[in-house]
Write a sequence for this structure.
């Protein structure tokens, strides 16, 4: 026969309490995961919706990241092309280049001789006949001027351009960076888009998880009531729902990562073909460690917050009327 | 062990369900609670298990003043009060074992201890062989015994039963009441609501009679 304990229960020792607490958490987390996997179809659908929602900002982020890498490569192209007067020959141009190299704001000057310019022009194709007609080379010498990195803001380049145009050898100058700056502006725009889309879809994920947990609570209200009858604390009853939210978040985040990675794998071949056409070494980069970490952390947080809101709205605890 | 001191319970919608109830039950005492349907039997039991709070008056259970018990302490109080219901309140999708284990799991007992105690409780109600069954596979009497095993598995000093034999035939009812007597022998305080008056009379225990929310009779057993 089970003897009842007549004394009021002693409070367990702190270490015992800690062990119970830890044990309950581990059990609850695993049991909740098992419960989710027991119903693969509804769980899978919820996870897929979360995954797709998070994959969109993730993919946009990867796009922006790759474009930035690409733009970084283009920074190596000359910032200013200085076209010299037609009567300046290669030797004079070399002298000028040497003088310009002494200036603190200039990193490098490349002399593109008339001959090499013509060669390059020929290589482009389609102009052979027109070039045949010409008796002498119509192209001037061009100096490709690369500024020091700390002299490369648009304003500083503007100043440099004015200064270069004052040279008596100079004919006209072209800034190669204007379109690069436009490109930069577009990148900034995409970045804002990533944040905006991330916030919007994040709220969506929050609502999806909140609603899923709400339905789960309603489904299990009889079980909850019985657990309260036999002495379950509010924390004990909340715990599996909070874990369910966290699991949904984690699985959704992993799905998002998988979708983005899969898209990158599919794009890798066409992109490298395109890059090779442009004689570029460019290669697509994926989410990377930090971004993956951020995606997973934010998806778990969204899951926890969503379920926490649902749990607080729909679970009152063992409250007598 | 259980003390009611001028207790009133009023439901906003239905008026007074209990009026000026006072009584005391000693440790290890077993008593019946009878009265017509709607007399307030369930309400009285629900007050002891803190499923309801009284409108007025004081209730002490196991030395604990229920009026001042903080919300967060209610689960711990319920672990000391085993409750048995006419409709069993079992989890239909869980095995007999899991149902009986619930109070221990909820209290965070170690796995091994849970298994040991659940089997001991099932052994007492004679259902050791059915631990893997689910409740629907059991007869009404067996389901009630699962409910009893669940109520006693945490070894609570107080056991409450609300018409536990309401749906059972006389023989099965008799068996259930004999089971309750065995708990009384080991010092559990039992309060059993029932309107099976024949059985109550045959068992010679203290009997409270409620009528329209008032305690109209309190007859001692032998
Ligand atoms: N949750 C409740 N809300 C409102 N009225 C209730 C509630 N529970 C019981 N009552 C009322 O209280 C009175 C006593 O009910 P109850 O305690 O269930 O009686 P018994 O168990 O003796 O049949 C009845 O009039 C009933 O209608
Ligand atoms: Mg009743």
């Amino acid at each position: 026969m089970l003897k009842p304990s007549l004394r009021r229960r002693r409070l367990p020792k702190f270490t015992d309490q800690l062990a119970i607490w830890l044990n309950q958490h581990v059990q609850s987390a695993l049991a909740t995961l098992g419960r989710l996997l027991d119903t693969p179809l509804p769980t899978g659908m919820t996870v897929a919706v979360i995954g797709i929602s998070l994959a969109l900002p993730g993919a946009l982020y990867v796009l922006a990241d790759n474009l930035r890498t690409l733009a970084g490569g283009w920074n190596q192209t000359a910032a200013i092309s200085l076209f010299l007067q037609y009567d300046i020959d290669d030797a004079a141009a070399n002298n000028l280049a040497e003088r310009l190299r002494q200036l603190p704001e200039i990193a490098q000057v490349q002399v593109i001789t008339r001959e090499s310019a013509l060669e390059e022009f020929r290589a482009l194709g389609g102009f052979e006949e027109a070039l045949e007609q010409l008796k002498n080379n119509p192209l001037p010498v061009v100096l490709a001027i690369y500024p020091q990195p700390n002299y490369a803001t648009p304003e500083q380049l503007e100043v440099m351009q004015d200064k270069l145009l004052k040279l008596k050898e100079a004919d006209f100058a072209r800034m190669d960076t204007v379109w690069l700056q436009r490109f930069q502006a577009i990148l900034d725009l995409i970045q804002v888009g990533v944040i905006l889309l991330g916030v919007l879809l994040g709220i969506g994920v929050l609502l999806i998880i909140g609603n899923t947990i709400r339905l789960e609570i309603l489904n299990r209200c009889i079980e909850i009531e019985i657990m309260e009858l036999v002495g379950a604390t509010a924390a004990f009853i909340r715990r599996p729902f909070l874990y369910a939210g966290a699991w949904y978040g984690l699985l959704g985040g992993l799905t998002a990562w998988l979708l983005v990675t899969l898209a990158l794998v599919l794009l890798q071949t066409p992109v490298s073909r395109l890059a090779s056409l442009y004689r570029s070494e460019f290669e697509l980069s994926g989410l990377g460690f930090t971004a993956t970490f951020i995606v997973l952390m934010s998806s778990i947080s969204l899951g926890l917050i969503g379920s926490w809101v649902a749990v607080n709205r729909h679970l009152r605890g063992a409250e007598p009327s | 062990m259980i003390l009611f001191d001028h207790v009133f319970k009023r439901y906003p919608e239905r008026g007074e369900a209990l009026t000026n109830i006072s009584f005391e039950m000693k440790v290890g005492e077993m008593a019946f609670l009878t009265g017509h349907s709607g007399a307030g039997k369930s309400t009285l039991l629900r007050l002891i298990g803190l499923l309801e709070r009284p409108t007025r008056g004081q209730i002490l259970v196991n030395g604990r003043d229920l009026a001042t018990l903080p919300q967060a302490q209610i689960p711990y109080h319920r672990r000391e009060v085993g409750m048995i219901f006419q409709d069993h309140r079992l989890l239909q999708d869980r095995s007999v074992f899991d149902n009986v284990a619930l109070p221990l799991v909820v209290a965070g007992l170690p796995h091994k201890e849970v298994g040991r105690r659940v089997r001991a409780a099932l052994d007492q109600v004679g259902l050791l062989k059915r631990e893997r069954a689910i409740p629907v596979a059991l007869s009404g009497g067996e389901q009630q015994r699962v409910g009893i095993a669940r109520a006693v598995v945490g070894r609570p000093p107080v056991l409450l039963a609300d018409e536990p034999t309401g749906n059972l035939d006389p023989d099965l009812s008799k068996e259930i009441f004999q089971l309750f007597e065995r708990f009384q022998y080991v010092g559990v305080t039992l309060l059993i609501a029932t309107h099976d008056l024949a059985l109550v009379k045959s068992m010679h225990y203290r009997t409270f009679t409620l009528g329209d929310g008032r305690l109209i009779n309190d007859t001692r057993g032998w």
Q: What stands out?
A: The pocket of adenosine-5'-diphosphate (ligand 1) is lined by residues B 11, 13-14, 17, 35, 37-43 (CB under 6 Å). Residues 234-277 of chain A form the longest helix (44 residues). Chain A has ten helices and four strands. The CA atoms of residues 101 and 108 of chain A lie 6 Å apart.
